[in-house]
Design goal:
There is one protein chain. By secondary structure, the protein is of the alpha/beta class. It has one domain: Rossmann fold (3-Layer(aba) Sandwich). 28% of the residues lie in helices and 17% in strands. The protein has a nine-stranded mixed beta sheet, sandwiched between helices. Helix 4 crosses helix 5. The longest helix has 21 residues. The chain is globular, with a radius of gyration of 20 Å. It starts with a helix and ends with a strand.
Length: 270
């Protein structure tokens, strides 16, 4: 074997390992097509195949509410996923944000698409909850970094957040255009001042925020025709924010019609 042939084999082995690693990313595993053994379009869990490494079927067709949430982005600037605990609302928003930050929209995507790299804010109630929930979902834990929704090979750089151990301030991500997108972590405890500033492609709030922050949320997205995502469980009941949003919103079912189901998500035009 010549030196060139050995080098070619080594390169091939590296590419195979790298391809397998990337195929294991959360982003590539979420919302998959049905397998040959599934009953296509059936919404019964028992009609779908459990993939290796999973405990239940995860075929995309089983996640109707999530797909509605994504698709509604095409016609609405504000979307609220009002949900029960542990139904995947935070993961859904993390998935959509990853699409926008990287430009890697799946073949089935029917929602909003951005053609350029952009800057985002994401926020939770406190710096600690933002770190333990949103940062974990997007980036991974401090002990297991780059294991979240963002593909590890596209994360270019990170910066730490002052004053909060193991928390990140900003993540920079390579977009398909070759340019760099960013996501900066915020928290509601920063108050209204913390949400003033430059234009943003979008904002994702993973908890119900205070009224003064709500008043600032649209301004950074106005010049970019940006979007706002809200994901939370209404543990405080029918607050002013929830009541106002519901009153002004369209409630959509999978066919795009208006329904009066309390378990639907609500979408509000800006």
């Amino acid at each position: 074997m010549t030196q060139d042939e050995a080098a070619a084999l080594e390169e091939l082995a590296y590419l195979e390992v790298e391809a397998a690693k990337r195929a294991s990313y959360k982003f590539d595993r979420y919302f998959p097509d049905c397998t040959m053994g599934c009953t296509p379009m059936s919404v019964r869990v028992q009609d779908h195949v459990i993939r290796p490494g999973d405990k239940t079927p995860i075929c995309r067709v089983l996640y109707r509410k999530h797909l509605q949430f994504f698709g509604a982005g095409l016609g609405y600037r504000e979307r609220l996923f009002l949900k029960a605990n542990r139904v995947g609302g935070t993961a859904a928003a993390a998935y959509e944000l990853t699409c926008h930050l990287t430009g890697l929209y799946p073949h089935w995507w029917t929602g909003r698409r951005f053609t350029e790299a952009g800057d985002w804010w994401v926020a939770g109630r406190t710096g600690i909850t933002t770190r333990d929930i949103v940062q974990l979902e997007l980036y991974g834990s401090w002990q297991a970094p780059k294991t979240g929704m963002l593909p590890a090979h596209l994360i270019q750089h990170t910066s730490p957040k002052a004053g909060i151990p193991m928390a990140l301030d900003t993540i920079w991500v390579r977009h398909v255009t070759g340019k760099i997108a960013s996501v900066q972590y915020k928290s509601f405890e920063q108050g209204r001042v913390g949400f003033e500033g430059v234009a943003k492609q979008g904002i994702w709030l993973d908890e119900e925020c205070e009224d003064d922050i709500v008043g600032e949320r649209l301004l950074p997205t106005m010049t970019t025709d940006g979007i706002l995502l809200y994901t939370f469980t209404p543990i405080q009941g029918l607050t002013t924010f929830v009541e106002t949003f519901i009153d002004q919103a369209d409630m959509l079912d999978e066919h795009g019609g208006v329904v009066k189901a309390r378990d639907a998500f609500w979408n509000k035009t800006a």
